[in-house]
Every structure is written in C-alpha cells, then in structure tokens.
Amino acid sequence: FPVTITKKKIMSKTFTFEDLNKELSKISTFGDTLDKSEVSTVDHYISTGNYALNAALTGSVWGGFPNNRSVAIAGPSGTGKTYLILNAVGEAQKLGYSIIYYDSENAVDRTLTDKFGIDPAKLRYEPCNTVQEFRSSVTNLTKAMLDAKKKGSELPKIMVILDSAGNLATQKEIDDAASGSDKSDMTRARLLKSTLRILMTQMGICKIPFLFTNHVYQTQDLFSKQVAGGGTGPEYAASIILFLNKAKLNEGTSTGIIVTAKPNKNRFAKPTPVKFWIDFNKGMNPFVGLRNLS
Q1: Could you give the CA distance from residue 213 to residue 84 in angstroms, rounded to a whole number?
Q2: Is the predicted pLDDT of residue 5 greater than 90, yes or no?
Q3: Residue closest to 282 by CA, chosen among 155, 115, 134, 159
Q4: 3-state class of 286 per DSSP?
Q5: Strand pairing category for 274-279 and 256-266
Q6: Which residue has the higher pLDDT, 204 or 235?
Q7: Residue 86 class from Cβ within 10 Å (0-12 exposed, 13-18 middle, 19+ buried)?
Q8: What is the rounded CA–CA span in Å between residue 100 and residue 160?
Q9: DSSP calls for 169-189
Q10: Which helix (H) or strand (E) holds 260?
Q11: For residue 115, what pLDDT is reported?
Q12: What does the mean pLDDT of the chain come to?
C-alpha cells in the first residue's frame, strides 16, 4: 500500500528587536528604548538669573542650566564666572537642590554665599586641590547615588559645582614642587579628560547638573584665539561651553561690569552671544539684554 508522509512545517520564531532589548535589559540596569528611557531627558532648567542668558543657553527665556547636563563657564579673571555659579546655586536651592561645591580657589565662604541667599545647611563645601582629589570624591558621590538608585531609593536632587577646573593641580605637580623640580606637568590634561569621561554618564543617570568654571588663555597661532584650559576634556564633556568677556559698566550711578556671554558650544540652541550687566551694588538685572534677542 502507498504510504503518505505528512510533512510538518516547522515554524521558527523570529528574534525581534524587542527580544534583543529584553536580553540587553538583563545586563544593563539603566538602558532601554528611548521612548521609555529618562536618563538623557532634561526635566527642567535652573535659571541663570538673566532672561537673555537663559535664551542663549537653551533657546527660551524660561530655560537656563539643564538639570542633567554639564556646563562650562570660561573666561578671564573678573568676568563673573563665580557670580554666575553662585547665582545658579541660589536658583537651584529654590527648586529643592542640595549642592556639593568643590572649591579649588579658596574663594567661597559663608559671607559670600549669604549675599546670594544661599542656605549653607544645604551646601556641602569641599576644598579641592588636585584633579585626583576631585575625581576620587565625585566618583564616590556618584557611586553612592547609583547604588541607592539600583535599590529603588528615591534620590535627592543634587547639583555639583567645580570652581574651578582651571586651578586644579596634580599630585605630580605638588611632588615636583616639593622636590625642587621645575619640569612642566604634562599629565594634567590627560587626568582631567579621564575624570570627566568617567563622570558624565553617571551624573546623567542620577540627574545631577554639573557646572564648572575654567580659565582661558590665548593660543600662539598666527591668528591668536581664546581657548579654555585643561585640554580637550572639558571641551568634549560639556553640553554647553560659555565664554565670558567684560567691559566696564558706568550707567548713571551704577558701577560694575557689562558681560558678553558667547556659547562656543551649545547642544540646545544656536550659539548666540548676549550681553548682561552685573551691578556691584544691585546684582544682575534679569531683563537686560532682552531687547536685542531676535
């Protein structure tokens, strides 16, 4: 008799992107599809204290410093870098932030912060001399935050300040000085770049805004230009790099400086320079510069 063989069609299941995403989620705590991930999302902005400067940074007068990105403020001495930082600290505290303030210039004290209405009980002051000290401290800070997040804890709102990156020494520089060596330290830029490379993602996951000031210098090129110190590390790490220059303010009875702020790098808006005033007696007028916004 003839034998009929029934062939069973074997259906193989397709391995989809959704399947791959599930597998990756088993080994990646914070990774997910972008429609579900909140790691890189900017939830809110911290005002700079000037509407035109807010617009220069983020394209909106209601913007300012993004809550989970890094911003570099660079410029010569006396251009208002620390003023902007302390103003941002005061604005951040109004939004419920506590502050970790790394000071490498020994320039901030209780008297100064009182002038900005800063609550000293919500600001941890960290004197910081070397890149290694800063890296060790802030790495432990982010580790503690990440460990708490992995356990399901609600994290506090933290802002990290470094004032300034340009004044951080290295342990080698200190050791060379102690031994009487006058060799130039060629490791500083590499160490600073490594430090920022380590920290940026961890800070983003923990929603930590990171503001730091930096020194500038003129290049020795045929056509000299102003660049920030510390090598390429700060340049690549920051989402916004704001360069400041100043002129003397002499408006009636006012004395202070007129600051020109130019975003040399900006991931949020077209780099547009703005001018604002810092009055030595009255502070920063939030409305100055609005007229010139296009």
Answers
A1: 10
A2: no
A3: 115
A4: coil
A5: antiparallel
A6: 204
A7: buried
A8: 5
A9: B-HHHHHHHHHT------SHH
A10: strand 256-266
A11: 92
A12: 87
Residue 284 has pLDDT above 70, yes or no: yes
Residue 21 zone, left/alpha/beta (φ > 0; ψ -120 to 50; rest): alpha
User: The tokens of 25 are what?
Assistant: 């989620």
Burial 234-273 (b: 16+ CB within 10 A, else e): bbebbbbbbbbbbeeeeeeeeebbbbbbbbbebebeeebe
State yes or no: pLDDT of 271 exceeds 90.
no
Q: Which two tokens stand for residue 13?
A: 């299941």
What is the phi-psi region of residue 106: left when phi exceeds 0, alpha when psi lies from -120 to 50, beta otherwise? left
Q: What is the mean predicted confidence (pLDDT) over 3-13?
A: 57
The pLDDT of residue 251: 65
pLDDT of residue 291: 83
Q: Beta partners for 283?
A: 279
Cis peptide, bond prior to residue 194, ω within 30 of zero: no
Tokens 């990105």 belong to: 69
Q: Which of 35, 48, 82, 77 is nearest to 268 (CA)?
A: 48
CA pair distance 139, 198, nearest whole angstrom: 8
Contacts with 281 (C-beta within 8 Å, 6 or more apart), sequence order? 254, 255, 256
User: By C-alpha distance, which of 115, 110, 89 is closest to 100?
Assistant: 89
Query: How many Å apart are CA 200 and CA 209, to the nearest integer?
Result: 10
Q: Report CA 260 to chain centroid distance, whole Å.
A: 20
- Would you state the structure tokens that stand for residue 280, as one six-digit string? 């030595």
- The pLDDT tens digits for 166-182 are 888 888 888 888 888 87
